[in-house]
Every structure is written in C-alpha cells, then in structure tokens.
Structure prediction request, 135 residues.
Amino acid sequence: MSCLFCRIVAGEEPAHVVLDREHVVGFLDVRPVFKGHVLLVPREHVDTLTELPDALVEPFFATVREVAAVVRDELGAQGTFVAMNNTVSQSVPHLHAHVVPRTKGDGLRGFFWPRVRYADGEAARYAEELRAALS
Prediction:
C-alpha cells in the first residue's frame, strides 16, 4: 500500500489517532500549524474532494463539523480553521480536511497564499462563467 494515509487507516503506519469511525479516521498532523491540528480522512481511498462518493459526503463533513467543535471546546480555542487542498499543495494524495485550533492573536494571518484583484468587469465574467456551469 503506497498511500501514507491508507497505511495509517489500516494501522500499518503509526499515528496519534483521535477518531476511528466506519467511514472516517482522524489523527494529529505530524507537522501541526498549532498543537491539536487534526487531519480527517475518508477510510476509503479518495484522491480529492471532487472524487468523494455521494454516500461519503454526509459522514465525512458531519465528522469535520463535529471535530471542529471538539477541537474548539476541548483545547480552549476560540475557533478553528478548516481547510482542504485538492491536488495543488496536497502533500498526500488522499482527501483530507485540516482542523486547526485558533485563538485571537495566535499569529496566523489570513490565508497562506497571495491575494489578487479583479480588473474592471472581470469579476462579472468569472461569475457568469461559473453560474452557467452550475445551472
């Protein structure tokens, strides 16, 4: 089994598992943004969010929501940062959600990438293209 997260799910790779459910496994990130940073993965190997089977959407995201509340409440955080990369910047090609405890003044500023601005009329064109594709 070449996937690191599949090996963790199978118990073949050591990890600090915090949750082991029928469809979702959660464990501490080995390189946390802050202590208590949890990674949640579907037990079934899925590369990216767009490949997540419909039957796993509810159990996966319900678990992400639950863990976000527990991380906040049990670790004395004021909130959480929940994030997911798809292909680009995805260090392990197995879908995973990051749940990171946050407190005001923790030093984390905004997002981890540069921001851009739309040229005049450009936002409307992007919105129209996406609206058309989603309708």
In short: Helices lie at 4-9, 54-74, 122-134. Strands lie at 17-20, 24-28, 38-42, 79-83, 97-102. The radius of gyration is 17 Å. The first helix runs from residue 4 to 9.
